[in-house]
C-alpha cells in the first residue's frame, strides 16, 4: 500500500490508477488458511461471504476471529453453517459481544450474520425482489436467498408453498408481486422443477430458477428439476445450480443494482 501511495505522490500514477491498485491490493491474508476480500462490496456491490460447509471447525473459527479483529468494516456472512457448528461458534466467540458484535443465525437458511449496529440496511433505490417456493421443502434455499438479498440492501417479498400442484395459489401471489413492482423473481422448486417456467410465462421481468434437491427416483438430488429448468421454453428464465440460493440472490442483486445505476444516471443527464 505504501508503495502505491508513493507512486501517486511521485506523480507516476493517476488517482484513478491508485484507486484500482489499492482495491486489488486490499486482500486481508488470514495466516495461510484463507484470503478474505475486505473490499469486495466496493468492487462488486456485495461483501465477501464465508462458506462453512467444507471447512474444518478450527479453520472456520480462525478465519472469523481474524476478520473480526482486523477492523470490522461490514457484516460478516457465513453460509451453510449447521446448527451444531453455530452453537459452538456462538460459545467460542462470545467475547465478541464486548466489542459490540452480535450474531444473527437463520436456522432454516443455515446462515449466520455477524454485525455491529444494524443487521441490514435496506436501500429503497434498489427496488424489490420476489422470492417464491414450490413447496415447504424448498424454503431453506429460499431463506438463504432472502438473507443474502437483505444483506445486500434489497427488500424482499416472499411467498412460500405455492407450487403447480395447487396452481390456483400461484396467481394471486404473482399479481401481488407485480403490483409491488418487483424487479426480479427468484423461484425455488424441486421435484420436476416446473414452477419457474410457469412464472416466467406470466411476467415481463427476469426470473431466476433455483432447482432444489427435493425429489426421489429419477428426480433425486434435484437433477430432474435442473434439467427441466434448463430445457424450459419460457423466455426470461435463467437458472443457477442446485440449492444455490446464494448464487440466485447475487444474480438478483446484480440486476437491481444495474437498474438503480441506470435510473440514477438518467436523472443526472
Task: Explain what the structure shows.
40% of the residues lie in helices and 19% in strands. The chain contains 10 helices and 11 strands. It has helices spanning 2-9, 15-25, 40-44, 57-69, 83-92, 139-151, 170-179, 195-200, 223-230, 245-268; strands at 27-30, 34-37, 49-51, 76-79, 101-106, 111-116, 128-133, 155-159, 184-189, 207-211, 237-239. The protein has a 5-stranded parallel sheet. Helix 8 (195-200) links the parallel strand 9 (184-189) and strand 10. The longest helix has 24 residues, at 245-268. The radius of gyration is 21 Å and the shape is globular. The relative contact order is 0.10. The model has no long low-confidence stretch (mean pLDDT 86).
Low-confidence stretches: none
Number of helices: 10
- Strand order of the biggest β-sheet: 8-7-9-10-11
What is the H/E string?
Answer: HHEEHEHEHEEEHEHEHEHEH
Radius of gyration in whole Å, from Cα? Answer: 21 Å
Report the major sheet: 5 strands, parallel
Map the helices and strands.
Blueprint (H helix, E strand, L loop, with lengths): L1 H8 L5 H11 L1 E4 L3 E4 L2 H5 L4 E3 L5 H13 L6 E4 L3 H10 L8 E6 L4 E6 L11 E6 L5 H13 L3 E5 L10 H10 L4 E6 L5 H6 L6 E5 L11 H8 L6 E3 L5 H24 L1
Parallel strand pairs: 3-4, 7-8, 7-9, 9-10, 10-11
Antiparallel strand pairs: 1-2, 4-6, 5-6
Helix pairs in contact: 1-2, 6-10
Provide a quick synopsis of the model.
With 269 residues, the chain is an alpha/beta fold.
Features:
single chain; 269 residues; alpha/beta; five-stranded parallel beta sheet; four-stranded mixed beta sheet; 10 helices
Amino acid at each position: 500500500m505504501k508503495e502505491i501511495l508513493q507512486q501517486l505522490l511521485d506523480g507516476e500514477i493517476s488517482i484513478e490508477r491508485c484507486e484500482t491498485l489499492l482495491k486489488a491490493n486490499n486482500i486481508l491474508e488470514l495466516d495461510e488458511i484463507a484470503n478474505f476480500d475486505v473490499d469486495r462490496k466496493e468492487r462488486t456491490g456485495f461483501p465477501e461471504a464465508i462458506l462453512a460447509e467444507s471447512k474444518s471447525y478450527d479453520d472456520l473459527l480462525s478465519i472469523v476471529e481474524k476478520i473480526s479483529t482486523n477492523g470490522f468494516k461490514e457484516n460478516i456472512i457465513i453460509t451453510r453453517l449447521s446448527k451444531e457448528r453455530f452453537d459452538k461458534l456462538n460459545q467460542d466467540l462470545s467475547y465478541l459481544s464486548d466489542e459490540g458484535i452480535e450474531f444473527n443465525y437463520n436456522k432454516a437458511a443455515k446462515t449466520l450474520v455477524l454485525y455491529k449496529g444494524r443487521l441490514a440496511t435496506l436501500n429503497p433505490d434498489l427496488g424489490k425482489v420476489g422470492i417464491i417456493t414450490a413447496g415447504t421443502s424448498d424454503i431453506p434455499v429460499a431463506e438463504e436467498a432472502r438473507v443474502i438479498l437483505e444483506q445486500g440492501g434489497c427488500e424482499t417479498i416472499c411467498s412460500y408453498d405455492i407450487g403447480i400442484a395447487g396452481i390456483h395459489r400461484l396467481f394471486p401471489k404473482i399479481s401481488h408481486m407485480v403490483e409491488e413492482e418487483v424487479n426480479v423473481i427468484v423461484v425455488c422448486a424441486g421435484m420436476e422443477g416446473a414452477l419457474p417456467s410457469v412464472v416466467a410465462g406470466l411476467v415481463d421481468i427476469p426470473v431466476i430458477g433455483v432447482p432444489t434437491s427435493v425429489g426421489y427416483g429419477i428426480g433425486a438430488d434435484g437433477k430432474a428439476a435442473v434439467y427441466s429448468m434448463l430445457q424450459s421454453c419460457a423466455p426470461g428464465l435463467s437458472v443457477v445450480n442446485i440449492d444455490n440460493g446464494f448464487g440466485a440472490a447475487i444474480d438478483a442483486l446484480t440486476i437491481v443494482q444495474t437498474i438503480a445505476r441506470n435510473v440514477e444516471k438518467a436523472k443526472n443527464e
